[in-house]
Amino acid sequence: MSSPELVTRIVKVGTTTNVSGKHKLTYHIGCNANSDIYFRVNENSGGGYFSTEWVSLKAIQQAIEQGRKPTTSFALYTLFNGKSVNTPAFLLAALLKEGLVHMHEENQRCYAATNPGPFITEINQLIASNINIQVEPNPKKKHKRLELFEAGPAIKKVSARVAKRLAMQEANKSKT
């Protein structure tokens, strides 16, 4: 694992569907000053929670290598200890899209690692080109109750006590 400040630039932004194929994911591939390769999940159209933490390709490969064969997203759970349970599966979808894993021939719910050479060559070329993709940070989503509160007529359905508490929370957020 890595902290975000170690990644100095984003060299590729990719999109794919999650493993079930129901929702669109956006992921970033970045590097640090030593040209080490990192992945992070950045967006999910499905609304499920996930971690935007950067994870090194070396750590990903090690987790897959040490896990059961054929592999599933469970092999990646150790990379996100205490984080969202969705993130490993979302990361696996990005790895599938980038050709670092492929569907297992005998079990369609499992995956096998592939030769990372072509992927590493592609990313090293992007790193050498000094590409630095700038991305806007994702806006924080509002809690459903706050959305109802701000909706106006829906406020009648929310008790006065809850409405007051939400207003106080929003006021506290704006102070920080």
In short:
The protein is of the alpha+beta class and 176 residues long.
Key descriptive features of the protein:
176 residues; alpha+beta; four-stranded antiparallel beta sheet; 5 helices
List low-pLDDT spans: none
| Termini Cα gap | 29 Å
Percent range for helical residues? Answer: 25-40%
Radius of gyration: 20 Å
The residue-averaged pLDDT reads: 85
Order of strands across the main sheet:
1-2-3-4
How many separate helices? Answer: 5
Please, could you describe this protein's structure?
With 176 residues, the chain is α+β, with helices and mostly antiparallel strands. 32% of the residues lie in helices and 19% in strands. The strands form 2 sheets. A 4-stranded antiparallel beta sheet has the order 1-2-3-4. A two-stranded antiparallel sheet has the order 5-6. Strand 5 (101-103) and strand 6 form a beta hairpin. The longest helix has 16 residues, at 160-175. The radius of gyration is 20 Å and the shape is globular. The protein starts with 8 loop residues before the first strand and ends with a helix. The mean pLDDT is 85.
